[in-house]
Design brief:
- The chain is an alpha+beta fold and 380 residues long.
- Helices cover 51% and strands 15% of the residues.
- It contains eleven helices and nine strands.
- The strands form three sheets. Strands 2-3-7-6 form a four-stranded antiparallel sheet, with helices on one face. A three-stranded mixed sheet has the order 1-4-5.
- A hairpin with a 2-residue loop joins strand 8 and strand 9.
- The two termini are 24 Å apart.
- The model has no long low-confidence stretch (mean pLDDT 97).
Amino acid sequence: MDFTLSEEQLMIQQAAKDFAQNELLPGVIERDDAQKFPAEQVRKMGELGFLGMMVKEEYGGSGLDTLSYVLVMEELSKVDASASVVVSVNNSLVCWGLETFGSEAQKQKYLTRLASGEIIGAFCLSEPEAGSDATSQKTTAIDMGDHYVVNGTKNWITNGGTAEVYLVIAQTDVEKGHKGINALIVEKGMEGFEIGPKENKLGIRGSDTHSLLFNDVKVPKENRIGEDGFGFKFAMKTLAGGRIGIAAQALGIAAGAYELARKYSKERKAFGTEIANHQAIAFKLADMHTKIQAARHLVYEAACDKDNGKDYTLSGAMAKLYASEVAMETAVEAVQIHGGNGFVKDYHVERMMRDAKITQIYEGTSEIQKIVISRSILKD
Protein backbone atom coordinates (compact mmCIF):
# COMPACT_ATOMS: atom_id res chain seq x y z
CA MET A 1 0.00 0.00 0.00
CA ASP A 2 1.24 3.45 -0.91
CA PHE A 3 -0.51 6.34 0.79
CA THR A 4 1.78 8.98 -0.67
CA LEU A 5 -0.49 11.92 -1.40
CA SER A 6 -0.49 13.59 -4.78
CA GLU A 7 0.18 17.29 -5.15
CA GLU A 8 -3.53 17.88 -5.71
CA GLN A 9 -4.46 15.92 -2.59
CA LEU A 10 -1.93 17.85 -0.51
CA MET A 11 -3.43 21.12 -1.76
CA ILE A 12 -6.95 19.94 -0.89
CA GLN A 13 -5.77 18.85 2.56
CA GLN A 14 -4.14 22.23 3.17
CA ALA A 15 -7.24 24.08 1.97
CA ALA A 16 -9.37 22.13 4.44
CA LYS A 17 -6.87 22.77 7.24
CA ASP A 18 -6.83 26.50 6.53
CA PHE A 19 -10.62 26.62 6.42
CA ALA A 20 -10.90 24.76 9.71
CA GLN A 21 -8.50 27.12 11.46
CA ASN A 22 -9.77 30.36 9.92
CA GLU A 23 -13.50 29.72 9.57
CA LEU A 24 -14.51 26.89 11.92
CA LEU A 25 -12.34 27.52 14.98
CA PRO A 26 -13.63 31.06 15.68
CA GLY A 27 -16.93 30.64 17.50
CA VAL A 28 -16.87 26.83 17.69
CA ILE A 29 -17.28 26.83 21.48
CA GLU A 30 -20.14 29.32 21.31
CA ARG A 31 -21.91 27.33 18.59
CA ASP A 32 -21.58 24.20 20.71
CA ASP A 33 -23.02 25.95 23.77
CA ALA A 34 -25.94 27.43 21.84
CA GLN A 35 -26.52 24.32 19.66
CA LYS A 36 -26.19 26.68 16.70
CA PHE A 37 -26.02 25.22 13.21
CA PRO A 38 -22.93 26.57 11.38
CA ALA A 39 -24.98 27.95 8.48
CA GLU A 40 -22.44 30.49 7.26
CA GLN A 41 -19.60 28.00 7.49
CA VAL A 42 -21.63 25.39 5.59
CA ARG A 43 -22.35 27.94 2.86
CA LYS A 44 -18.62 28.61 2.50
CA MET A 45 -17.85 24.90 2.44
CA GLY A 46 -20.27 24.61 -0.46
CA GLU A 47 -18.44 27.38 -2.29
CA LEU A 48 -15.15 25.51 -1.77
CA GLY A 49 -16.66 22.35 -3.24
CA PHE A 50 -16.61 20.37 0.00
CA LEU A 51 -20.29 19.36 -0.19
CA GLY A 52 -20.09 17.47 -3.48
CA MET A 53 -16.50 16.33 -3.54
CA MET A 54 -16.95 12.96 -5.25
CA VAL A 55 -19.74 14.02 -7.63
CA LYS A 56 -18.84 14.38 -11.30
CA GLU A 57 -18.31 17.93 -12.49
CA GLU A 58 -21.18 17.60 -14.96
CA TYR A 59 -23.51 17.40 -11.96
CA GLY A 60 -21.96 20.33 -10.12
CA GLY A 61 -19.44 18.39 -8.06
CA SER A 62 -15.67 18.51 -7.71
CA GLY A 63 -15.01 15.13 -9.32
CA LEU A 64 -12.48 14.11 -6.68
CA ASP A 65 -11.61 10.72 -5.23
CA THR A 66 -12.64 9.24 -1.89
CA LEU A 67 -9.19 9.73 -0.38
CA SER A 68 -9.41 13.49 -1.01
CA TYR A 69 -12.79 13.48 0.71
CA VAL A 70 -11.31 11.62 3.68
CA LEU A 71 -8.49 14.17 3.94
CA VAL A 72 -11.00 17.01 4.09
CA MET A 73 -13.15 15.21 6.66
CA GLU A 74 -10.11 14.61 8.87
CA GLU A 75 -8.98 18.24 8.83
CA LEU A 76 -12.45 19.68 9.44
CA SER A 77 -13.10 17.21 12.26
CA LYS A 78 -9.93 18.21 14.07
CA VAL A 79 -11.71 21.47 14.82
CA ASP A 80 -15.50 21.11 14.47
CA ALA A 81 -17.22 17.73 14.14
CA SER A 82 -20.61 19.45 13.97
CA ALA A 83 -19.58 21.03 10.68
CA SER A 84 -17.82 17.95 9.33
CA VAL A 85 -20.86 15.71 9.76
CA VAL A 86 -22.77 17.97 7.36
CA VAL A 87 -20.03 17.30 4.81
CA SER A 88 -20.18 13.57 5.53
CA VAL A 89 -23.94 13.19 5.15
CA ASN A 90 -24.19 15.39 2.07
CA ASN A 91 -21.31 13.61 0.33
CA SER A 92 -21.52 9.97 1.43
CA LEU A 93 -25.22 9.40 2.00
CA VAL A 94 -27.09 11.88 -0.16
CA CYS A 95 -24.98 12.82 -3.19
CA TRP A 96 -23.34 9.41 -3.62
CA GLY A 97 -26.65 7.59 -3.37
CA LEU A 98 -28.31 9.87 -5.91
CA GLU A 99 -25.43 9.83 -8.37
CA THR A 100 -24.98 6.05 -8.17
CA PHE A 101 -28.60 4.90 -8.18
CA GLY A 102 -30.73 7.90 -9.13
CA SER A 103 -32.32 8.54 -12.52
CA GLU A 104 -30.96 11.19 -14.86
CA ALA A 105 -33.99 13.36 -14.11
CA GLN A 106 -33.35 13.05 -10.35
CA LYS A 107 -29.71 13.97 -10.84
CA GLN A 108 -30.58 17.04 -12.85
CA LYS A 109 -33.29 18.16 -10.44
CA TYR A 110 -31.62 17.43 -7.09
CA LEU A 111 -27.99 16.30 -7.36
CA THR A 112 -26.69 19.39 -9.14
CA ARG A 113 -28.01 21.68 -6.39
CA LEU A 114 -26.80 19.38 -3.61
CA ALA A 115 -23.31 18.94 -5.03
CA SER A 116 -22.79 22.66 -5.55
CA GLY A 117 -23.84 23.41 -1.97
CA GLU A 118 -26.87 25.43 -3.05
CA ILE A 119 -28.90 23.16 -0.78
CA ILE A 120 -28.06 20.31 1.60
CA GLY A 121 -29.68 16.92 2.03
CA ALA A 122 -30.59 14.41 4.73
CA PHE A 123 -30.65 10.61 4.86
CA CYS A 124 -33.66 9.22 6.70
CA LEU A 125 -33.37 5.61 7.83
CA SER A 126 -33.46 5.47 11.65
CA GLU A 127 -36.76 5.21 13.50
CA PRO A 128 -37.83 4.84 17.13
CA GLU A 129 -37.82 1.04 16.69
CA ALA A 130 -35.48 0.72 13.70
CA GLY A 131 -31.99 1.95 14.43
CA SER A 132 -29.48 -0.85 14.08
CA ASP A 133 -32.27 -3.14 12.84
CA ALA A 134 -32.90 -1.33 9.55
CA THR A 135 -35.24 -4.08 8.31
CA SER A 136 -37.92 -3.13 10.86
CA GLN A 137 -39.21 -0.05 9.06
CA LYS A 138 -42.51 1.24 10.42
CA THR A 139 -42.65 4.22 8.08
CA THR A 140 -44.89 3.18 5.19
CA ALA A 141 -45.05 4.26 1.56
CA ILE A 142 -48.31 2.96 0.10
CA ASP A 143 -48.33 2.65 -3.69
CA MET A 144 -51.26 4.69 -5.07
CA GLY A 145 -50.44 4.28 -8.75
CA ASP A 146 -48.71 7.50 -9.78
CA HIS A 147 -47.58 8.38 -6.26
CA TYR A 148 -46.84 7.00 -2.79
CA VAL A 149 -48.51 8.08 0.44
CA VAL A 150 -45.93 8.19 3.22
CA ASN A 151 -46.72 7.90 6.93
CA GLY A 152 -44.39 7.46 9.87
CA THR A 153 -41.59 8.96 11.95
CA LYS A 154 -37.85 9.19 11.44
CA ASN A 155 -35.48 9.86 14.35
CA TRP A 156 -32.04 11.41 14.84
CA ILE A 157 -31.84 12.85 11.33
CA THR A 158 -28.71 14.90 10.68
CA ASN A 159 -29.49 18.14 8.78
CA GLY A 160 -33.11 17.43 9.72
CA GLY A 161 -34.19 21.05 9.96
CA THR A 162 -31.91 22.66 7.40
CA ALA A 163 -32.07 20.19 4.51
CA GLU A 164 -34.21 20.78 1.45
CA VAL A 165 -34.04 17.22 0.13
CA TYR A 166 -34.63 14.06 2.20
CA LEU A 167 -33.91 10.48 1.13
CA VAL A 168 -36.55 8.51 3.02
CA ILE A 169 -36.49 4.73 3.48
CA ALA A 170 -40.02 3.33 3.86
CA GLN A 171 -41.91 0.02 3.75
CA THR A 172 -44.24 -0.49 0.78
CA ASP A 173 -45.00 -4.20 1.08
CA VAL A 174 -44.71 -5.70 4.59
CA GLU A 175 -45.12 -9.26 3.31
CA LYS A 176 -41.96 -8.93 1.23
CA GLY A 177 -39.90 -7.87 4.25
CA HIS A 178 -36.70 -6.04 3.32
CA LYS A 179 -37.48 -6.64 -0.36
CA GLY A 180 -40.58 -4.50 0.01
CA ILE A 181 -38.72 -1.36 1.12
CA ASN A 182 -38.30 1.71 -1.10
CA ALA A 183 -36.17 4.83 -1.08
CA LEU A 184 -38.04 8.04 -1.87
CA ILE A 185 -36.97 11.63 -2.40
CA VAL A 186 -39.05 13.94 -0.22
CA GLU A 187 -38.83 17.71 -0.50
CA LYS A 188 -39.17 20.17 2.37
CA GLY A 189 -42.57 21.82 2.13
CA MET A 190 -44.50 18.81 0.86
CA GLU A 191 -47.92 18.78 2.48
CA GLY A 192 -48.00 16.62 5.61
CA PHE A 193 -44.23 16.64 6.10
CA GLU A 194 -43.31 18.14 9.48
CA ILE A 195 -39.99 18.72 11.23
CA GLY A 196 -39.99 17.84 14.92
CA PRO A 197 -38.07 19.55 17.74
CA LYS A 198 -34.29 19.72 17.63
CA GLU A 199 -32.55 17.09 19.74
CA ASN A 200 -30.63 18.30 22.82
CA LYS A 201 -27.48 16.20 22.38
CA LEU A 202 -24.36 15.27 24.33
CA GLY A 203 -22.04 16.08 21.43
CA ILE A 204 -21.95 17.51 17.90
CA ARG A 205 -24.38 20.02 19.33
CA GLY A 206 -24.02 22.38 16.38
CA SER A 207 -25.30 19.64 14.08
CA ASP A 208 -28.97 20.01 13.19
CA THR A 209 -30.59 16.80 14.45
CA HIS A 210 -34.38 16.37 14.37
CA SER A 211 -37.21 13.89 14.27
CA LEU A 212 -39.29 13.99 11.08
CA LEU A 213 -43.02 13.34 10.87
CA PHE A 214 -44.85 12.13 7.76
CA ASN A 215 -48.63 12.42 7.69
CA ASP A 216 -50.15 11.30 4.37
CA VAL A 217 -47.31 12.87 2.41
CA LYS A 218 -47.83 12.41 -1.34
CA VAL A 219 -44.56 11.61 -3.08
CA PRO A 220 -44.55 11.31 -6.90
CA LYS A 221 -43.60 7.90 -8.29
CA GLU A 222 -40.73 9.50 -10.21
CA ASN A 223 -39.15 10.31 -6.81
CA ARG A 224 -38.50 6.65 -6.10
CA ILE A 225 -34.81 5.74 -6.33
CA GLY A 226 -34.24 2.56 -8.33
CA GLU A 227 -36.69 -0.24 -8.95
CA ASP A 228 -39.56 -1.16 -6.67
CA GLY A 229 -38.16 -2.90 -3.57
CA PHE A 230 -34.62 -1.54 -3.98
CA GLY A 231 -34.78 0.65 -0.87
CA PHE A 232 -33.08 -1.66 1.61
CA LYS A 233 -30.19 -2.43 -0.74
CA PHE A 234 -29.90 1.28 -1.45
CA ALA A 235 -29.64 2.03 2.26
CA MET A 236 -27.05 -0.68 2.95
CA LYS A 237 -24.87 0.19 -0.05
CA THR A 238 -25.02 3.88 0.83
CA LEU A 239 -24.20 3.30 4.49
CA ALA A 240 -21.18 1.19 3.54
CA GLY A 241 -19.62 4.28 2.01
CA GLY A 242 -20.93 6.50 4.78
CA ARG A 243 -18.88 4.52 7.28
CA ILE A 244 -15.72 5.72 5.59
CA GLY A 245 -16.78 9.33 6.12
CA ILE A 246 -17.56 8.78 9.79
CA ALA A 247 -14.31 6.85 10.22
CA ALA A 248 -12.52 9.92 8.84
CA GLN A 249 -14.48 12.12 11.22
CA ALA A 250 -13.43 9.94 14.16
CA LEU A 251 -9.84 10.04 12.94
CA GLY A 252 -9.98 13.82 12.82
CA ILE A 253 -11.41 14.11 16.32
CA ALA A 254 -8.65 11.85 17.63
CA ALA A 255 -5.91 13.72 15.78
CA GLY A 256 -7.24 17.09 16.89
CA ALA A 257 -7.42 16.04 20.54
CA TYR A 258 -3.91 14.57 20.34
CA GLU A 259 -2.48 17.73 18.81
CA LEU A 260 -3.98 19.86 21.57
CA ALA A 261 -2.73 17.48 24.28
CA ARG A 262 0.77 17.37 22.80
CA LYS A 263 0.94 21.16 22.60
CA TYR A 264 -0.35 21.57 26.15
CA SER A 265 2.09 19.01 27.52
CA LYS A 266 5.01 21.04 26.21
CA GLU A 267 3.72 24.25 27.83
CA ARG A 268 2.30 23.16 31.19
CA LYS A 269 4.86 22.71 33.94
CA ALA A 270 4.68 20.51 37.03
CA PHE A 271 7.39 19.48 39.45
CA GLY A 272 9.84 21.86 37.85
CA THR A 273 9.55 20.80 34.22
CA GLU A 274 7.10 20.57 31.30
CA ILE A 275 4.72 17.68 31.87
CA ALA A 276 5.80 16.18 28.53
CA ASN A 277 9.05 15.30 30.27
CA HIS A 278 7.23 13.07 32.73
CA GLN A 279 7.05 9.48 31.52
CA ALA A 280 3.41 9.13 32.55
CA ILE A 281 2.43 11.84 30.04
CA ALA A 282 5.00 10.94 27.38
CA PHE A 283 3.75 7.36 27.27
CA LYS A 284 0.15 8.51 26.92
CA LEU A 285 1.15 10.61 23.92
CA ALA A 286 3.12 7.70 22.45
CA ASP A 287 0.08 5.43 22.67
CA MET A 288 -2.20 8.10 21.22
CA HIS A 289 0.09 8.79 18.28
CA THR A 290 0.54 5.09 17.48
CA LYS A 291 -3.18 4.29 17.55
CA ILE A 292 -4.07 7.36 15.48
CA GLN A 293 -1.56 6.33 12.84
CA ALA A 294 -3.00 2.81 12.78
CA ALA A 295 -6.52 4.23 12.44
CA ARG A 296 -5.35 6.54 9.66
CA HIS A 297 -4.01 3.60 7.68
CA LEU A 298 -7.29 1.73 8.05
CA VAL A 299 -9.30 4.76 6.93
CA TYR A 300 -7.04 5.48 3.98
CA GLU A 301 -7.12 1.82 2.93
CA ALA A 302 -10.92 1.81 2.94
CA ALA A 303 -10.95 4.98 0.85
CA CYS A 304 -8.47 3.47 -1.62
CA ASP A 305 -10.55 0.29 -1.85
CA LYS A 306 -13.55 2.39 -2.83
CA ASP A 307 -11.54 4.40 -5.35
CA ASN A 308 -10.09 1.24 -6.90
CA GLY A 309 -13.45 -0.41 -7.33
CA LYS A 310 -12.84 -3.04 -4.67
CA ASP A 311 -15.40 -4.30 -2.16
CA TYR A 312 -14.98 -1.91 0.79
CA THR A 313 -17.57 -3.49 3.09
CA LEU A 314 -14.94 -5.08 5.32
CA SER A 315 -12.31 -2.36 5.19
CA GLY A 316 -14.91 0.36 5.79
CA ALA A 317 -16.35 -1.45 8.79
CA MET A 318 -12.90 -2.04 10.29
CA ALA A 319 -11.94 1.59 9.75
CA LYS A 320 -15.13 2.85 11.35
CA LEU A 321 -14.91 0.47 14.30
CA TYR A 322 -11.28 1.15 15.14
CA ALA A 323 -11.16 4.88 14.37
CA SER A 324 -14.20 5.53 16.56
CA GLU A 325 -12.66 3.60 19.45
CA VAL A 326 -9.42 5.53 19.04
CA ALA A 327 -11.34 8.82 18.93
CA MET A 328 -13.08 8.08 22.23
CA GLU A 329 -9.95 6.82 23.94
CA THR A 330 -7.74 9.64 22.69
CA ALA A 331 -10.22 12.36 23.61
CA VAL A 332 -10.54 10.98 27.16
CA GLU A 333 -6.74 10.89 27.52
CA ALA A 334 -6.47 14.42 26.11
CA VAL A 335 -8.78 15.63 28.88
CA GLN A 336 -6.65 13.75 31.41
CA ILE A 337 -3.43 15.32 30.14
CA HIS A 338 -5.01 18.75 30.44
CA GLY A 339 -5.93 17.99 34.05
CA GLY A 340 -8.40 20.48 35.50
CA ASN A 341 -8.18 22.59 32.36
CA GLY A 342 -9.43 19.62 30.38
CA PHE A 343 -12.73 19.98 32.18
CA VAL A 344 -13.04 23.59 31.02
CA LYS A 345 -14.68 24.44 27.70
CA ASP A 346 -12.03 26.97 26.68
CA TYR A 347 -9.51 24.19 26.05
CA HIS A 348 -11.71 22.36 23.49
CA VAL A 349 -10.85 18.79 24.54
CA GLU A 350 -13.98 18.29 26.66
CA ARG A 351 -16.06 19.08 23.56
CA MET A 352 -14.01 16.64 21.51
CA MET A 353 -14.61 13.96 24.12
CA ARG A 354 -18.37 14.55 23.85
CA ASP A 355 -18.22 14.65 20.06
CA ALA A 356 -16.21 11.43 19.86
CA LYS A 357 -18.92 9.28 21.42
CA ILE A 358 -21.36 9.56 18.54
CA THR A 359 -18.82 8.08 16.11
CA GLN A 360 -19.27 4.77 17.92
CA ILE A 361 -23.02 4.96 17.39
CA TYR A 362 -24.25 6.55 14.17
CA GLU A 363 -24.05 5.01 10.70
CA GLY A 364 -23.80 1.64 12.39
CA THR A 365 -22.85 1.11 16.02
CA SER A 366 -19.54 -0.55 16.93
CA GLU A 367 -21.49 -3.72 17.62
CA ILE A 368 -22.98 -3.64 14.12
CA GLN A 369 -19.51 -3.13 12.64
CA LYS A 370 -18.37 -6.27 14.45
CA ILE A 371 -21.27 -8.18 12.90
CA VAL A 372 -20.25 -6.92 9.44
CA ILE A 373 -16.59 -7.78 10.05
CA SER A 374 -17.26 -11.23 11.49
CA ARG A 375 -19.60 -12.16 8.65
CA SER A 376 -17.00 -11.01 6.11
CA ILE A 377 -14.16 -13.03 7.60
CA LEU A 378 -16.23 -16.16 8.23
CA LYS A 379 -18.26 -16.43 5.01
CA ASP A 380 -15.69 -18.50 3.07
